Amino acid sequence: xxxxxxxxxxxxxxxxxxxxxxxxxxxxxxxxxxxxxxxxxxxxxxxxxxxxxxxxxxxxxxxxxxxxxxxxxxxxxxxxxxxxxxxxxxxxxxxxxxxxxxxxxxxxxxxxxxxxxxxxxxxxxxxxxxxxxxxxxxxxxxxxxxxxxxxxxxxxxxxxxxxxxxxxxxxxxxxxxxxxxxxxxxxxxxxxxxxxxxxxxxxxxxxxxxxxxxxxxxxxxxxxxxxxxxxxxxxxxxxxxxxxxxxxxxxxxxxxxxxxxxxxxxxxxxxxxxxxxxxxxxxxxxxxxxxxxxxxxxxxxxxxxxxxxxxxxxxxxxxxxxxx
Amino acid sequence: xxxxxxxxxxxxxxxxxxxxxxxxxxxxxxxxxxxxxxxxxxxxxxxxxxxxxxxxxxxxxxxxxxxxxxxxxxxxxxxxxxxxxxxxxxxxxxxxxxxxxxxxxxxxxxxxxxxxxxxxxxxxxxxxxxxxxxxxxxxxxxxxxxxxxxxxxxxxxxxxxxxxxxxxxxxxxxxxxxxxxxxxxxxxxxxxxxxxxxxxxxxxxxxxxxxxxxxxxxxxxxxxxxxxxxxxxxxxxxxxxxxxxxxxxxxxxxxxxxxxxxxxxxxxxxxxxxxxxxxxxxxxxxxxxxxxxxxxxxxxxxxxxxxxxxxxxxxxxxxxxxxx
Amino acid sequence: xxxxxxxxxxxxxxxxxxxxxxxxxxxxxxxxxxxxxxxxxxxxxxxxxxxxxxxxxxxxxxxxxxxxxxxxxxxxxxxxxxxxxxxxxxxxxxxxxxxxxxxxxxxxxxxxxxxxxxxxxxxxxxxxxxxxxxxxxxxxxxxxxxxxxxxxxxxxxxxxxxxxxxxxxxxxxxxxxxxxxxxxxxxxxxxxxxxxxxxxxxxxxxxxxxxxxxxxxxxxxxxxxxxxxxxxxxxxxxxxxxxxxxxxxxxxxxxxxxxxxxxxxxxxxxxxxxxxxxxxxxxxxxxxxxxxxxxxxxxxxxxxxxxxxxxxxxxxxxxxxxxx
Amino acid sequence: xxxxxxxxxxxxxxxxxxxxxxxxxxxxxxxxxxxxxxxxxxxxxxxxxxxxxxxxxxxxxxxxxxxxxxxxxxxxxxxxxxxxxxxxxxxxxxxxxxxxxxxxxxxxxxxxxxxxxxxxxxxxxxxxxxxxxxxxxxxxxxxxxxxxxxxxxxxxxxxxxxxxxxxxxxxxxxxxxxxxxxxxxxxxxxxxxxxxxxxxxxxxxxxxxxxxxxxxxxxxxxxxxxxxxxxxxxxxxxxxxxxxxxxxxxxxxxxxxxxxxxxxxxxxxxxxxxxxxxxxxxxxxxxxxxxxxxxxxxxxxxxxxxxxxxxxxxxxxxxxxxxx
Lengths: 324, 324, 324, 324
Prior knowledge:
Chain A is α/β, with parallel strands linked by helices and 324 residues long. Chain A has nine helices and 17 strands. Chains B and C meet through strand 2 and helix 3 of B and strand 2 and helix 3 of C.
């Protein structure tokens, strides 16, 4: 038995090449000038019906990291970890003495939560490139009142469909990918062939790099804002051409960092989200799901991942559910 | 053609009768002393598989009210409406002049959010009766650190299953129920017979009273904390006996208010949640789903409703998705 | 004995007249192009020393409204009342049983606080007129990062000096002024003559209208954002010409509302703050101080009113202290 | 010329000795069973009048650290650094194009602020010892509703008086004290003799250790919650016996840490605050004031330090003002 083949090597892209790819994959106007959901249009009644047939065992896997002060945020930027506060709790019953232990009493709580502090969807309005978000919207569309267009809330009714888990450490026979390692088109092609799963229209592709598992075990360190393994530009193009609706990963930025293009910090965001209109998910916890998929050999499932309906939000926390 | 039959009248319950019903329906210990999910156990792989077969058309209905300052909260209690704040937005690009319109820029946001301000799940630890939450947990289990047991986050992997919409205004041929009107066992029986749908183990029952639609149109007024139509005690018993996993409604308290028992403000919470271990959802927006169900005549569907994974939370905002 | 003379009547100002007054009183550049404190320059070591001599009895009056959920905000805008939350409290000791009552334990708390929800200073950067704040700063100086110039924090070392209380209800022999009543130059002149107090350089003038006392007693209603008595344009000019450093009042907007100029909602803000560089305070609770001043006949005192040092803040809560 | 004498060495205290000292200095009941301000009673009209005479030059020194994300908090506990958010800013004017640059526009902001994140007063209700705060109040007095007694807000009208700066690095001829170094009675005695300043009734004593300056320069590191120089138990007793009203320092805990008593983490809090009723201030920035005092040789001044009036608060941010 031979060791599994490793990932294809990183590639270098010039800014011009990235721009050319972005234009090639751009879907602006494809669903009209007012469109706000882009590749979510590939999620159709037909793909949803098909996805439902993937519920074969009846087991569900929540894919969110706990939202609490042990999260990966460092407290050095505005994205602090979620601050969960109790507005009324059991200690208040005790403070009331015997009266507190009679009859009905309730507890209550609140949270101060940067919307991208944990497991999240980016909204299209989260990323501007040359002053525009998806479908050519300008800066004036995202103000203190929130986003008037391209908010993540627009995606709610397109947030169920087929999910496909691409478990990269298992593909290459390692525990985890290393920061800077890029997932290329040929890697996805090989994974697809190996598993007999065609990635296609309306899918949400979940890329597991093992990076979250590693940092969770070792201490978060630079998990947020640091180098990370992730999707490379050729991989992004491969997915966009197959008309996927969304791509999510177990890293803070989904794409490989540092990026493959020296002058653009997040070129995959530019290509996929700003131009192709493919939604991006980050900090998804794919470990339990991945273990199950490895065991039953079935990497596809019904994925239900609605954003929280915060009006005008440029990102959204969520608890995605994979149902097999 | 005759007018539809109206709801059965309100009934009066003594405190002793409520206590007796609570004890009868109590499931404490049925799944061991450490159990934290109660009737969610009736959600099984089998019920999930069946629920998935209800996806016949491939359309999804988000059931959450928008989370923003136009919500139903009055600002007079700690449950203010969600405070969505931008941490960085399009105006910041403009403030940077030409540089702001070149290359990649991102926006970011946060929210201060009382967890039960909008569409929500109550956690079992949300309600104490005589000093105990579900399965006999005392006040010391819910402190400033959050809930150590019975948090809503425990439910995440049991949050997909069959949903059944009981549209009460359409049952009785009116626009909406009136505050104080109680949904009784016989009403549910009649609805069930009329639609040929058996409510049963693992279901989440969605009760539409029309009260949210009315208050949304007229101004929220006392929608939160005021009188409301909702589930009566006989109806609660009927549902618990059929082993439903959860009940949600389009009102702030799910149950009829003022309650049918003069000495207990929310007796249905006591019976269903504290004793039977049936999860309760509130302020769900069921109007679009109800219109669709009226049109296609199919009031059952796959319902996916995971809580946000806020560690120790006593309630959770969510965007439930009904998929037909 | 004759009844006291009433206030001079409201006047009408055209937009051009307001503009002319603003230009006349403009102090832009008077302390250099980089100046951020304007008329606070009139607060000098000499005025501070003199103010300290006004401490004759040794009694202090805090002038802030309590910051809590009973405050005047309505919850309909982003300025919700302060949300004070406990992070750890006495009930947590009780939840720990006997151990909680042994040794040292601490409590902790936090607040979500719109900075102008209660007793406050406006910063110069709070008001733009024709795209500029005091000393000609443009919109790019106030971004998501806060104010880079003209923040209220710049005033901290100029926040002690003479305070003068002008108690208007007592001047006119009524309980309170009515919404829409304007305090004019002649009213201030008369008050000054009557009390033998020259208002002058470096003073902070506290205008009591009685409106806060009235709304506090009757229910806040439209106290915030509604019509109110307050400073008229002639009064503003009179104060600016005397080189006061700041003006504060017991209303939400300090100036008379509706304003005396149909096309400018807050012309006194434009004249005093944007142009003359006179700092404005709002929602100050002057009632106890006023009662004391009426009793001892001394309406001048040492006033110490530093802003909270929130970097880049465009307003600041504070607890001003008047020391007599 | 000889080098200045160093601080007296640390001492060891047994728990029994700390308890005995606490009982000796206890003032519970001295001002009645309902008293909530303790040694603030030593601040009298006479001491306030005297303090005002210390305003000799007319210069003011704000003593607060900036409240922003660069603060000393680590983000690992509920005490995150202050989260200042803009609710509306200059970028919003730009987003409105030409209209945004015409007429009056305003900006607004808010903050999520743990009350003891920066420069602060501890309230008496902040520290329980054996289940009691000052004057024998039990845990039931501090609940989710805040503190019903012993809140910091009670101190507002006693928050002006004489301040005395004890600059310890300058006393011992070093840049800063080292973590673990304790300020003893004899050190205070020596300082007092050297400066000819009697510390006495109603004073607020400001202890500068140089620790804040050091950590600010070097990176905050363990400034919060770590070892620190500070007041020792003998020093605390010396101050309480002189009837000071308050003690503040430039460290996170004011007292020396680790403490001089192995079984009590913060014995000076227990002695001074819980028993003697002396208010404690922490994280005060005394560097500019200290430089000025060294220059003019006058270490006493009028200190005005009112808490923010957050109802029921167990601590308070503030911007203390020293006026010389």
